[in-house]
Amino acid sequence: MIPKIRTGTDRAFPLIDYLFGPGKHEEHTDQHLVASWNGFAPDPGPNPERHQVAKLANQLDQPVKALGKQAPATRIWHCSVRTAPGDRHFDDTEWATIARRIVHATGIAPEGDTAACRWVAVRHAPDHIHIAATLVRQDGRLAGLSFDRRKAQAEARLIEKEYGLRQLNPGDGTAAKNPTSQEHFKAERTGRTETPRETLREAVRQAVAGAANEEEFFARLREAGLRVKLRRAPSGDVLGYNVALPGDRNASGEPIWFPGSKLAPDLSLPKIRRRLDAAPATGAPAPDDHTARAGRSAPARRRRDAAHVAERAAAVLDQDDDEAAAHLIGAGELLDALAQTSPAATRAELREAARAFERATRSHVRAENADIRALRSAARGIVHAGGALGRGEDGGATAMVLSTLVLATLAAARWHSARGHAQQAAASRQAADHLRAAYQQAAATPMRTMREIGRALPQGERLRYDTTIRTVLGNADGSPKGPAREHDALAAVLAEAEKAGHDPKALLKKAVDRRELETARNTTDILVWRIRRLANLPANPEHPHARTATDTRARTAPAPARPAQPAPAQPPADPHRPTPRR
């Protein structure tokens, strides 16, 4: 159940007229009262005459009018109460009970207080009601509305339990502002899939990801095609910024500007500056000689680097201290960097993962002196490396970093749950689901190749690797005899690592000891990518059939024709030599 509260300075008539009107898109049907402050308020009913609406509005306004010039500037309290998608629809009696509980909990009309504020509950749709109240009590005093939004949310959680509704997560005041209904209507009218506020929020987050300084941040905003307006002090110093989408204008034809603080609490310029100053992102290091010889692309190298950094961040989150709050911000930047540079196959899921995890990066926990430079530098490296193709080494490196980020987001969910951050924990789990989907797309080809390589190993060699796997993972006694199919890819990567000079058993133990594996849905996949990274193996293995085919073509190809040799020069004729007989 979702209560949403607004206040206004108008009299009651504009709001009552809207509630009993047809709505902006003719969506209001069967408009009627379900409850009121005294049970006898006049009900204009569906399709009312103007004087009927005015009669109800005047009765609501009487305590405000009685104060004359002493009336408060804020006079109207409006609370919409909506059931969540999938919940059953209430009848009028149930909605009336819910309305009385909301006005009691918020202090508008405590139960038994006959001098409380006047209010009405209007129903014009199956799934919600609107409560309209005036903020002057009938005894002339002002309504006490301290923490009314928090109280409405708390009462909604109780109603959900008692009525068997979907249990929503309580907020803590750190969420980004949702688009208004007017913004949604405009987006639908103009053919947008989302509101400008949501588009701008994502664009600003991506511009911050790995930015080295304020100038680069503003340059990225402009490169993304946004209109940018800086607010300056008389001294010329920048105080803040506003962004707008090209073509998004108001009725007067002027751009609709959004300050960063209205997009999300952490996107104001002062907070962005603190992030840039506290954890400056540096350029990613140049590849070493081995990496250069391996021929890895820049996007692949940066993703491998990011996988290592993300694994360290996950370890910090598992330590369950407040320092992890900063690492959540860094992990969010890493996701934003991947979302804007990923190939088409994974881009949609990664964008959804980044959007979901954005909620997990904000809470009231503050980390002091936490060092997230490595995370921000990894994000910067990914952005500056450019878009990945998603094939070959790029695809394998993308799968490598995504397998690690799944564990990092699950660690974030546990960290938030331990502190009672229900919305942030749910957002972390949602991000993990999107990352799993993106991982499946990125890892499909390289994992299939590794499984085929594992199945093609000689029988004795394969049994040796399988014994190592069972021993290290602790299931040597209870497993069936013979190679396990789920170990195919892991056996292949151990064989590849041994050829590169590593001890397979020691390497597997090191991979297992890096972090816990209990939360992994597929332990083998996690270990495969850890070993490939630890042993510095190519992220995309070469299929042996491809190598064999190449060798066969090289052996069977006809030898290139030799260039014709010039005939040997003949010595000059000797005039004294007799002519040979024929």
Round the mean pLDDT to the nearest integer and report it: 87
Q: Helix/strand/pairing class, anyone?
A: alpha+beta
User: Radius of gyration in whole Å, from Cα?
Assistant: 34 Å
Strand order of the largest sheet: 1-3-5-4-2
What's the story with the biggest beta sheet?
5 strands, antiparallel
Number of helices: 21
| Element-level helix/strand string | EHEHEHEEHHHHEEEHHHHHHHHHHHHHH
Describe this structure in words.
- The protein has 582 residues and is of the alpha+beta class.
- The protein folds into three domains: 2-163, BirA Bifunctional Protein, domain 2 (2-Layer Sandwich); 193-278, no CATH class; 289-534, no CATH class.
- 52% of the residues lie in helices and 9% in strands.
- The chain has 21 helices and eight strands.
- The longest helix has 34 residues, at 422-455.
- It starts with a strand and ends in a 26-residue tail after the last helix.
Question: Which features characterize this protein?
Answer:
single chain; 582 residues; alpha+beta; BirA Bifunctional Protein, domain 2; five-stranded antiparallel β-sheet; 21 helices; disordered C terminus
